[in-house]
Amino acid sequence: MSKIESIGILTSGGDAPGMNAAIRAVTRAGIFAGFKVFGIYRGFKGLISDEIEEFSTQNVSNIIQRGGTILKTARCKEFQTPEGRQCAYDVLRRHGIDALVVIGGDGSLTGARIFANEFSFPIVGLPGTIDNDLYGTDSTIGYDTALNTIMECVDKIRDTATSHERLFFIEVMGRDAGFLALNGAIASGAEAAIIPEFSTQTDQLADLIDHGFRKSKNSSIVLVAESPLTGGAMGLAKRMEEEYPQYDVRVTILGHLQRGGSPSAFDRILASRMGAAAVDALLDDQRNVMIGIKNDEIVYVPFTKAIKNDKPINTELINTQRRLSI
Ligand code: F6P
């Protein structure tokens, strides 16, 4: 394998808190290892249009605490075409960049895998997404911060729900995964979590809520994962209102505020460890792997496994949530 002398870093797909900490870690560990490091702006889109700058350690000063990504991010249709990827390859060659670190979610790592295979180009991925839906790592960069944001929001909604004795449906992100909804429900003591991995009928949900109100609860909060499989908070609230008009129902969609904010200590440390590990992986001749952390150990997860395998929801969490919300 040819020796790597120069690496490019990009962030792609939805931003996630901790991406900056990861950029900082890759840059500094890369420079420490003797690599030239290039920041590539706007993900694969900026790679194709040659938005590239050489980074020194100062370029990543004072960013560990900042949400978003200093490299900006984008979702890029052109990179899905062979012509777009050829153009990206030519740009990399022109800059003498001989390896990439791609920080992003499922879609970004899928693009990275195709590109790596097509051009035999060394790429290491870092799991950067609030959804926590990448297989092979206990947590993705941004997930913990988003979970804390959800918890704080639900705590606030609880105040008004209690005062008005209302039933709230709160929709959280996660694309097709229920990690944010389920763990958000446990952390905030919500009455139920509706997630795509498990189907819940409206009459089951109504029974549970009814039981709570009869017992002594004067408000209820249901966290709903945004997936089409759950019907989203709006859909579910509508069905409940039609079938059970006794409830005073309100809906809150937390939306993109879940992606912002200063990363938690957990995410900063996770991103720093993963970023340094990405450089180690390249030095170690690892190719086409995503860095994961499992049981506190760095692991290399082949792209195919990280992307294709559905990350399972731990059923112990589902049981715990149900038992503790009676
Ligand atoms: O993948 C991260 C995520 O925030 C998902 O939870 C959500 O479905 C999606 O991105 C929203 O994407 P956009 O910002 O493009 O609307």
Name the descriptors.
11 helices; 7-stranded mixed β-sheet; binds 6-O-phosphono-beta-D-fructofuranose; 4-stranded parallel β-sheet; alpha/beta; 326 residues
Give a brief description.
With 326 residues, this protein is of the alpha/beta class.
Describe the model.
The chain has 326 residues and is α/β, with parallel strands linked by helices. The protein is 43% helix and 18% strand. The chain contains 11 helices and 11 strands. The strands form 2 sheets. The chain has a 7-stranded mixed sheet with strand order 3-2-1-4-5-10-11, with helices on both faces. Helix 7 links the parallel strand 7 and strand 8 (220-225). Helix 1 (19-32) runs parallel beside helix 9 (265-283) and helix 6 (179-188) packs parallel to helix 11 (315-324). The protein is elongated and about 70 Å long. The termini are far apart. Bound molecules: 6-O-phosphono-beta-D-fructofuranose. 6-O-phosphono-beta-D-fructofuranose is lined by residues 14, 105, 129-131, 173-175, 226, 259.
Write the layout of secondary structure elements.
Blueprint: E1 6-11, H1 19-32, E2 36-40, H2 43-48, E3 52-55, H3 82-95, E4 99-104, H4 106-119, E5 123-127, H5 143-164, E6 167-172, H6 179-188, E7 192-194, H7 202-215, E8 220-225, H8 232-243, E9 249-253, H9 265-283, E10 289-294, E11 297-302, H10 303-308, H11 315-324
Parallel strand pairs: 1-2, 1-4, 4-5, 5-10, 6-8, 6-9, 7-8
Antiparallel strand pairs: 2-3, 10-11
Helix pairs in contact: 1-9, 5-6, 6-11
This protein binds 6-O-phosphono-beta-D-fructofuranose.
6-O-phosphono-beta-D-fructofuranose is lined by residues 14, 105, 129-131, 173-175, 226, 259.
